[in-house]
Amino acid sequence: MAVQSTLRPSKEQLxxxxxxxxxHRPLVQRGLTVAFVVYVITSTYRGFSARPGASSxxxxxxxxxxxxxxGASKPRVAVDAVFYQRLSRILRIVIxxxxxxxxxxxxxxxxxxxxxxxxxxxxxxxxGKIVASLVRAQPxxxxxxxxxxxxxxxxxxxxxxxxxxxxxxxxxxxxxxLTKEVMRQYLGDDADVQxxxxxxxxANLDDRIKNPDQMITHDIQRxxxxxxxxxxxxxxxxxxxxxYNYQLSQNVGAEGLVLLTVLVQASAALLRALTPAxxxxxxxxxxxxxxxxxxxxxxxxxxxxxxxFGGEETEKMLVERxxxxxxxxxxxxxxxxxxxxxxEEGIVKWLWGSFGLCICAIPVFFKFPGVAxxxxxxxxxxFVTNRRLLLSASDxxxxxMYSYKDLSELAGYTTRVATLLETMADVRKGKFEKxxxxxxxxxxxxxxxRGRGVxxxxxxxxFENVPIVTPNGDILVRSLSFYVKPGQHLLxxxxxxxxxxxxxxxxxxxxxxxxxxxRKPPASQFILIPQRPYLSLGTLxxxxxxxxxxxxxxxxxxxxxxxxxxxxxxxxxNIVEREGGWDAAREWRxxxxxxxQQKIAWARLFYHKPKYAVLDEATSLVPPDMEGxxxxxxxxxxxxxxxxxxxPSLWKYHSMILQYDGQGSYVFxxxxxxxxxxxxxxxxxxxxxxxxxxxMKARLAELQELASERSRx
Length: 713
Description:
Layout: H1 2-7, H2 11-48, H3 81-94, H4 101-135, H5 139-187, H6 198-204, H7 212-252, H8 254-273, H9 278-301, H10 303-309, H11 312-360, H12 362-365, H13 376-428, H14 443-450, E1 454-457, E2 461-469, E3 475-484, E4 490-493, H15 500-507, E5 517-520, E6 526-529, E7 538-539, H16 540-545, H17 550-555, H18 560-569, H19 574-579, E8 585-586, H20 588-591, H21 594-608, E9 612-616, H22 624-636, E10 640-644, E11 656-660, E12 666-670, H23 673-712
Helix pairs in contact: 2-7, 2-8, 3-13, 4-5, 4-7, 4-13, 5-7, 7-8, 7-13, 8-11, 9-11, 9-13, 11-13, 18-21
């Protein structure tokens, strides 16, 4: 008992301790307040700081069999180091300098957020004064406070409207910067020395991005909106938590603030542990929505083919399959959001509200040293003010908690946008990730795929031991050698899938060179005329001068009369009057027949006058006499033709021939059109005679049977 009495403090000791605490309470209050501010900032930083992500194995190349890389795991979406690295790279794009318009808008946004917090603090104090004047039954102070309330509404409403306006302007500025950068890489610009054709290679040589249109339009827009909102959803709540709680600590004491912080942080840790991976759900939702849109766009693009084949049911099944996958995922997310919302509201609104009421009651039930006693009005004013501050602080802390969910969604869109930028950067460096055919794993073929050839700019076209390889690793020709000199038209023939069009894609710089030496003029000296020419959106003039604009045409000293003369060559001069003039705009793919479209493409060739023209069945829909006329006019203009065609009528316009056999071999030689045509005619005659052989055999059998019957008679 004696030992216990010595350990237990006496009343005198407790009184001395209370007296010492009362004397030093202001210093303790300041220390606790400073510690609270430091704690809020550091805990917020730790909460949003990088976390260890999954292994980077998912970033390895997906080269092999399979569709869309199904065998590879999906990239992890989380608020981790990778997210902050990607976000940092994108921020350098959307905010290029502190003097940029975006930085100015951000400073303006920050100033408005601080001003709104100051107004909220003033309104909380004013609210307490209004209630206190009511309790004290003081009409004059009450009316004066109401007048102050109405006056403060003017800057408050002005600030709220400006905040919304500036945030939307900031989102639009982010989107504009990011879209310009993406389009610069996607389509190139005048300052781009290398003509990389990223838009083509992204769609044909790489499997990582299936729907760049959705990423450039929808995902960038959503990313910009989330990025503009996340600043207000993180910086403003953190500032509010500090200021509101500082003011609250002045009213109820820092001791209650420390107790409240411990209780809130414990429940917040529980809430964070129960929060699902909303960032990964957002990224997957965007991907599934893009797949659905891509399926619909394919149906629109190939509607004629689908209609002819009667493939409505199959296409409907494909669309419904994509939609079912999207709905299944969205339902899963909705279920996650439902129970998370229940837990979140229960903790943030109700549990924290009960903590707050207890804190607000501290000045009523406990007397602190150095604090004078208050009357009923003073206690009411303090309670109302503290409760208003507490509700604002609770709302701010709740928004800090919600902001992590917003940050997770931003991580999802950041992953999509960063993937687009990273993939385009890889494509510009010649790094592709494509699912390969099974034969690509053979050592001999793999050696070819690992190699790279040399491209030399030259006036002539010459291939020296160049393999023809498709993007999926299928080797069509192991070593191709041929040449084309200016003025020597080349005819290219062979079965389907042998490498005729592949050759043109290498010449145009669209496909990589896996070996050998390629000498060729720059891609700007080539024009391709496919069987179904490309007609752009725009006027009739735009179709002839594409990709030039009217200003480019006039800069070259060419007028509409010169264009009309070009149309006369292809016997289409009447189209100008028929369609309503050069400035008439139509959906030209629907307004013109297939033959007219090919004539427009030839007119485009005669307008640009390149050194070389690649013709891929470019005369299949025009009459033979018109075909010859256009070939001869191209020769007079000094255009060397590389022609893929099976029409014997074109042979006489070419001096060289490159013939594939479809088995990986080829023959390159001079073309003797007359001899080849004679052989072709002889072959056709023999084929006709061979077709008559079965009939002749049948007739011979009939005659023999009749002869045997007569002999028996």
